[in-house]
Amino acid sequence: MKLLKTAVCFAAVSAVMVYGCQKLYKDGEYSDIAGADVAAETVPPQETFTEVITEPVSDKEVSLTAGKSVTFTFLGDCLLASNEGDTRPDSFKAYAEKKPASYFFEKALPVYKDSDFVVANNEFVLTDQKLSKTAKTGTAFWFRSPSYCADILKSGGIDIVSIANNHTMDYGTKGYNDTAGALDSAGIMWGDIDHPVYVEKEGVKFGILCTNMFGANYEPIITPKIEELKETSDIQILFFHGGTEKEHIPEEWLTELCHKYADMGVDLIVGSHPHVLRSMENYNGVDIIYSLGNFCYGGSRLPENRTVILTETFNFDENGSYISQEESFTPFYVYGGEHNNWQPTPVTDPVEISKTLAFMYGAKDSPIDL
User: Fold this and answer.
1) Which end of the chain has fewer CB atoms surrounding its CB within 10 Å, N or C?
2) What is the pTM of this model?
3) Number of Cβ atoms within 10 Å of the Cβ of 170
4) What domains can you pick out in the chain, each with its CATH number?
């Protein structure tokens, strides 16, 4: 049976607080949990925005008794490398050679250090070999770093990465395999279209499918993989890489494909690749975040300087039956200062926080100032 839920979202003032919607099933409907993630005194009325969303929830089994929660945190594109041939003294490569591994994520880690699983897009090659670049046409970039850069991800608290993107083949199959090996050595789980990631917490098995999705022609590749994921996990997450770069509005084909997978039963859909934020959508009770933008991004000295950390909380009863889930966003800058210092920094200005959140929730009268 399809039920309705109502979400009320607030912006609050804090550098490391998570913002978003809390939804609870009770007495036949979904409603906001008062004070669940933002203390009342931290919400100044002049900076508060409210959006009411009415939407059907998924067909997952619903129970009335609250019990256990599992949290997943997602970061945007992480490109821990410089373009081939970049020898500038302030490049990412130069920073990686002189800074401790903890430097890059040290301002972000407090936000998600208590999350059960932290997921990011690993958009570069990890290798210690002198490999040949893959041939490309037009304006092209190649990104690789020594294998020790996997320690940056590890020290940054990242548990799982996707290597399904358009740069992990920059140095061919050997570079791809070296990347997987370096991640294995660092104790970081990785996934691609042929290797879904499975994790278990509180007796619930989560399946994460990482995939490229650059057009509607990917549908016959992805759909059977999702069917397999449904057979082998309790909760399914799709982490895709696709969409037009630097465009803030998702393409029609991409929206249709995400809707299809939501209708198939996927519980959460998160996207990367455009290098800019895209507003989220809740479709039939499924959160679809079309792009988280960049996060720790070595590909540009001046990338679009706005991103968010997404945390999705899944709630279950004592028997592991699904009750509800809620998304929350923490606004971040990709860098602080005049140009990229390769260290994402929390947004602290309440007006900027509100603008970012309003954009993520699609408030048309509150455009984000990018």
Assistant:
1) N
2) 0.84
3) 25
4) 70-315+328-346 (3.60.21.10)
